[in-house]
Design goal:
- By secondary structure, the chain is mainly alpha-helical.
- It has 2 domains: about 260 residues, no CATH class; about 160 residues, no CATH class.
- Helix 1 runs antiparallel to helix 2 and helix 2 packs across helix 5.
- The radius of gyration is 30 Å and the shape is globular.
- The longest helix has about 60 residues.
- A two-stranded antiparallel ribbon has the order 1-10. A two-stranded antiparallel ribbon has the order 2-3.
Length: about 550
């Protein structure tokens, strides 16, 4: 019996009781009135029953369409892997193009590959659902039947047990409160910085936005021209037009902040607070988006840039791999799909990935200025980088300690991919350590500083354990990086007016009271993709 039926039953009994209360014998008119009232109630009950049946059918239809959309999403994910294999087999995978320059000088983490797959399945499911229903994401999110079915399916309650696996939880307030050191030291992955919102700013969470995303299809297809033509002006043309042309030479106006150290610190800081994963192949290999540097390849992972060859770049297609889609927009729980393909694998999907949201992107590292580029943003990375007695691991040579070697075999140290046998890729808290020498120098500087601080602490606190020495030194190094950033980098970057307007100056004494626990500290998309490009593109 439904709630409405129960209410109706109660109403019927109430009417009968009222009609008979105090009068065991009723007149004919009173009996007729009672019968009419009962007849109306029964008609209302029938009407509500019919409406409930209709509502159930609508919910059932919504659920079946969403399940079908997810099946299509899973199928499209499998086909993408098949296409990657195809391109690799015909010599168009980046692994096969050793003579060609690499698009990056860093490896792709296993976690990034997993998250890429999750996000792609969700986006593909949304596209399929829009096509199946003829509704936009906004319309679907405003329909309670679809919104409820979406949340219900991703929560796992509508999938039979054969398609469910164990749940992978995000940090909760209770989890954080159980950490004995939560009030003394930062967690390595950035969780528990805010006990009310323990996943804000953590590694592998979605980057917040200043403004909502805009795609031509409302999901993830790039925008088109305002006049309806499918392509916009080439980004290469726009970037070239930013520079002043003087007798055929590109020159820029002199800036007072143009120093090599400004560039290096800007990049070092950037690598402390954001890493946006891009699409990669199944095992982390680069995606190729242009055929013979001339023709863009139509792939979900690509936005190859068409351009006119010039004296700087004698190509007509520039490689551009898209950012991998984020698998979640909120962080309350996880659900695992089993993908049935040539092999069985599992995919974690966050059930609070809202139906309305279009493509989002992930920050693979912590959003805080916490020295994550020195120490890593996961427990696995931290274990690889730690040495003994609280120190960081180093490679000792006659000239002094160097960064340890990356023995994973996944790192790149040269643009050609032909690393000398006697050379080695450096390993650090951020995977981009090998991008350029100035960046590697700063990584090494702070590893050495950590170890120097450990020696100093050991002298004054000989009873401390290795963990205590490590955590205290890590806290101090993080504070040093923060101090240099605010007291030196930003002081030289911004005018006095800007520093005062936004409260960016350090206090000469006391403590700042500006912290607001209701502000998400996650690095914004606009900062990652626009503002921070300034740091190392001067």
């Amino acid at each position: 019996m439904s709630f409405l039926q129960a209410v109706l039953g109660f109403a019927v009994i109430s009417v009968i009781c009222q009609q008979t209360s105090g009068n065991l014998i009723t007149s004919k008119d009173e009996q007729e009135l009672t019968e009419k009232e009962l007849e109306s109630l029964y008609k209302l009950e029938t009407l509500l029953d019919e409406r409930e049946i209709i509502n159930k059918e609508r919910k059932k239809k919504a659920k079946s369409l969403i399940l079908l959309a997810f099946e299509e999403g899973l199928e499209k994910s499998e086909k993408m892997v098949e296409r990657q294999t195809y391109y690799r087999n015909i010599g168009m995978g980046r692994r096969n193009k050793i003579k060609r320059k690499n698009n990056r000088l860093f490896k792709i983490s296993k976690m990034s590959i997993e998250k890429q797959e999750e996000g792609f399945i969700l986006l593909s499911a949304k596209k399929a659902l829009v096509k199946l229903t003829g509704k936009t994401l906004k319309e679907l999110s405003g329909d309670p039947d679809y919104q409820e079915a979406w949340d219900d399916i991703l929560a796992g309650s509508s999938i039979d047990s054969s398609r469910r696996k164990r749940s992978t939880k995000r940090a909760t307030t209770n989890d954080c409160q159980k950490l004995s050191s939560v009030n003394e030291y930062r967690t390595i992955d950035g969780t528990c910085n805010n006990l009310d919102k323990p996943n804000w700013g953590a590694a592998f969470t979605t980057q917040p936005r200043f403004i909502d995303e805009v795609y031509s299809d409302g999901i993830n297809t790039p925008r088109i021209s305002a006049d309806g033509t499918p392509t916009l002006t080439s980004p290469r043309t726009i970037s070239n037009s930013v520079f002043i042309i003087n007798n055929g030479r590109k020159v820029s106006k002199p800036e007072g902040f143009n120093s090599l150290m400004s560039l290096n610190w800007g990049q070092f800081l950037d690598h402390d607070i954001v890493l946006t994963p891009t699409f990669a192949e199944e095992h982390g290999e680069d995606i190729q988006c242009c055929k013979e540097d001339a023709i863009p390849i139509a792939r979900d992972e690509c936005l190859g840039i068409e351009m006119t060859p010039d004296e700087d770049l004698d190509i007509s297609c520039m490689e551009f791999v898209r950012s991998a889609p984020a698998p979640d927009t909120q962080l309350n729980g996880m659900f695992m799909f089993i993908i049935h393909s040539l092999h069985v694998s599992t995919v974690n999907i966050n059930y609070c990935f809202t139906i309305e949201a279009g493509n989002q992107v992930t920050n693979a590292i912590t959003s805080f200025i916490d020295g994550s580029m020195v120490y890593g943003s996961s427990e696995d990375e931290e274990r690889q980088l730690r040495g003994i007695d609280g120190k960081m691991a180093v490679k000792s040579v006659s000239g002094g300690d160097l960064l340890p070697e990356d023995t994973s075999g996944e790192a790149f140290c040269t643009l050609t991919g032909r690393d000398p046998v006697n050379d080695y890729c450096q390993n650090a808290g951020d995977i981009r350590v090998n991008v350029q020498p100035g960046l590697g120098h700063l990584h090494l500087l702070f590893v050495r500083e950590h170890n120097r601080i450990v020696d100093e602490l050991k002298n004054v606190q000989p009873s401390w354990t290795g963990d205590q020495l490590y955590n205290e030194a890590r806290k101090i190094v993080g504070a040093i990086i923060q101090h240099i950033t605010f007291n030196e980098y930003l002081e030289n970057l911004f005018s006095d007016e800007i520093l005062d307007k936004y409260g960016l100056r350090l206090l000469s004494e006391g403590y700042s009271r500006d912290y607001n626990k209701n502000i998400n500290p996650g690095t914004r998309v606009g900062v990652a993709t626009a503002a921070l490009r300034f740091g190392h593109t001067q």
